[in-house]
Specification:
This protein is 45% helix and 15% strand. The protein is an alpha/beta fold and 370 residues long. The protein has two domains: 191 residues, Glycogen Phosphorylase B (Rossmann fold); 171 residues, Rossmann fold. The strands form two sheets. It has a seven-stranded parallel beta sheet, with helices on both faces. It has a six-stranded parallel beta sheet with strand order 10-9-8-11-12-13, sandwiched between helices. Helix 5 runs parallel beside helix 6.
């Protein structure tokens, strides 16, 4: 196992900054705590690269822009061979395909993590066909490489059961370190006289921001409840128009990307996750670690992690009335907020710690390199 970790690379695209990227940073941090420094290989010098450098890890950037698959894959193989890498932990279909092709020039083991389902909310026929093609190529490459596949939830494992039949598979939930709310300053955006709801994530249809805005506009919701949305994506203008149409634009705050997202989490009154589907989002686990009450859709990893009424409140996806009722219930009951926050924090520390996640991946690295 020790040899596998000393000859380990982590590879992902690095274009966006979301759950995959936070997972990569968490693994870098978790392995560093065990005196292991994996090679980080990215195909884009963006936010992930910047945050990795802040942790003391300088990534190798292999630009895939305007290059043939074979050219980039051969460059990847050369880097891995030069560093004596024996195991590559790949995240995302692009990294998976590049790594599988790189094995034509240099042999190494692949560990792949599936963080969610193939884009379920693809808009339009062309996007849907493209996503199906990517899914097919990724599944084929995963099989040809004989990869060990990890899933962050049981729900995702079941989805991929046929595609990954015959491969070594593992369910390893994401994990985060313990966090202290007192360490984080209150952002001026979150005015104390308001009841501040927070949604964190890319502005995409699958995240259910429109459901949250519609819930805020219902008659059941108190006027001092505000919705704060942290994230960027293609739907910002649509969400703003929806808030204006429902006459709640003064209580819906699109804050964009915030590097200090933990400040917002630590000082919000509740985290909302009205998603139509989820893997196991880091925002959920981080809110649990910070002791923040959570309202989430009963889907995917959210339903696997949250025990309704004990560690959070679960509502049916797309249900505006249920979400509005849960928000007002939490708003009106301070004792409930305190109880849910404490339950969530205890659950995170016992089952979703960074140390536990790191240990489980280390075992997979060891058996994959054997």
């Amino acid at each position: 196992m020790a040899e596998a970790i000393s000859h380990l690379a982590i590879c992902t695209h690095g274009e966006l900054f979301g759950g995959v990227e936070r997972h990569v940073l968490a693994m870098v941090e978790g392995l560093a705590a065990r005196n292991a420094r994996p090679l980080l290989v990215l195909f884009r010098d963006g936010e992930l690269a910047a945050q990795a450098r802040a942790l003391g890890t300088e990534p190798v950037i292999l630009s895939s822009a305007n290059l043939a698959l074979a050219v980039t894959s051969r460059r990847l193989a050369a880097v891995l061979q030069q560093r004596g890498i024996r195991v590559v932990h790949a995240h995302g279909y692009k990294a998976g395909v590049f790594c599988a092709l790189a094995r034509a020039w240099y042999r190494f083991a692949i560990v792949k993590t599936e963080h969610g389902l193939p884009e379920p909310m693809a808009a339009g026929r062309q996007s849907a066909l493209r996503n199906r093609f990517y899914y097919f190529v990724d599944a084929l490459a995963t099989h040809l490489a004989g990869a060990s596949v990890c899933y962050v939830t049981e729900d995702i494992r079941k989805y991929y059961a046929r595609a990954h039949a015959g491969l070594r598979v593992f369910v390893i939930p994401n994990g985060v370190p313990a966090m202290d709310r007192r360490r984080f300053p209150q952002p001026p955006d979150l005015a104390q006289q308001r009841f501040n709801l927070l949604v964190v994530g890319r502005l995409d249809e699958v995240k259910g921001h429109d459901v949250a805005i519609k819930a805020l506009a219902t008659a059941a919701i108190s006027p001092n409840i505000h919705l704060n949305i942290v994230g960027t994506g293609p739907r910002d203008s649509q969400l703003l128009l929806l808030a204006k149409a429902l006459r709640v634009a003064d209580r819906v705050h699109l804050l964009g990307f915030r590097r200090n997202v933990y400040d917002y989490m630590a000082h919000c009154d509740a985290l909302l996750m009205p998603s139509l589907h989820e893997g196991l989002p880091y925002a959920l686990l981080e809110a649990m670690a910070l002791g923040v009450p959570i309202i989430a859709s009963a889907v995917g990893g959210l339903a696997e992690v949250i025990e309704n009424g004990v560690t959070g409140l679960l509502v049916a996806p797309r249900s505006v009335p249920e979400l509005a009722q849960a928000i007002e219930h939490l708003h009106a009951d301070e004792a409930l907020r305190t109880r849910l926050a404490a339950g969530a924090q205890a659950a995170q520390r016992s089952g979703y710690s960074l140390d536990t996640m790191t240990s489980r991946y280390m075992r997979v690295y060891g058996c994959s390199a054997a």
